[in-house]
UniProtKB/TrEMBL annotation:
The lineage of its organism: Bacteria, Pseudomonadati, Pseudomonadota, Gammaproteobacteria, Alteromonadales. It comes from Thalassotalea profundi. Gene3D superfamilies: Periplasmic binding protein-like II (3.40.190.10). This is Solute-binding protein family 3/N-terminal domain-containing protein. Residues 1-27 form the signal peptide. Residues 33-245 form the Solute-binding protein family 3/N-terminal domain. InterPro entries: Solute-binding_3/MltF_N (IPR001638).
Length: 246
């Protein structure tokens, strides 16, 4: 074999190895985006696509970063578990609470936070709520592991005593409308959508109380701690660029 043929053979192999290394690096940088169904921020529409106020912002940020990604909706506990145990997992919408602070690389905010409102069924004349403290005189439900779950526990609710813990918000709404819990904490836009989907009139529920806005941390997206610095920096710059555009 001539020297030129041998040289070309080695050169071709070097190019192949480098190309494979680049492809592997790109594959390793792919982001697994996880979320939950939490209207109006992130939810699955009738076509099976994940949409919502926060979803639109997250997709714009990731497009700006040029990173490849996939996006899936899970129950909150599974989404949270993936984002705290695996590299390259981005979770949204997630409220930046003190007990979560050290678990993630944070990118805040991604959208403004709508306050939860406390509702009762209109025909429940036995229920009176004038202040936040009055809420714990009744039963309520919350999705496990969420900010609302933590908030209710902080008010003095006890899991499976006067706080029914559910797998997602839809279950909580179903329990409330069936009269199995006294109160529902939800967004105004979300309860209106739920009633419309069930062909129920808005007059079926009555708003009692609004959880003060100052009680809410920032509404964010967050990246798993095991993710490389390069990926974190790409997303941080993209987040800054997109949010600066208004």
């Amino acid at each position: 074999m001539s020297h030129s043929i041998l040289r070309n053979f080695f050169l071709a192999n070097i190019i192949l190895v480098v190309s494979n290394s680049i492809n592997l690096a790109l594959a390793n940088d792919k982001i697994q985006v996880v979320t939950e169904n939490w209207y109006p921020y992130n939810y699955t529409n009738k076509n099976g696509s994940i949409v919502g106020k926060s979803t639109a912002v997250v997709k714009k940020i990731l497009a700006q970063s040029t990173l490849d990604y996939s996006i899936e909706a899970f129950p909150w506990t599974r989404a949270f578990n993936l984002s705290t145990t695996q590299p390259n997992v981005l979770i949204y919408s997630i409220l930046r609470t003190p007990n979560r602070e050290k678990l993630f690389h944070w990118f805040c905010p991604i959208s403004t936070q709508e306050p939860h409102r406390i509702y009762k069924l209109t025909n429940r004349n036995d229920i009176t709520v004038n202040t936040e403290k009055d809420i714990k005189n009744y039963t309520i439900s919350a999705t496990r592991g969420t900010f609302l779950h933590q908030y209710m526990v902080g008010l003095g609710f006890i899991d499976e005593v006067n706080l029914q813990v559910t797998s997602d918000d839809e279950v909580a709404t179903t329990l409330f409308l069936a009269g199995r819990v006294d109160l529902l904490a939800d967004f105004e836009s979300s309860i209106e959508r739920s009633l419309k989907e069930r062909r129920l009139d808005k007059s079926m529920v009555t708003q009692l109380f609004i959880i003060p806005a100052e009680n809410y941390p920032a509404n964010c997206m967050a990246l798993s701690k095991q993710t490389s610095t390069d990926v974190v920096n790409k997303i941080r710059k993209a987040h800054q660029d997109v949010m600066s555009q208004g």
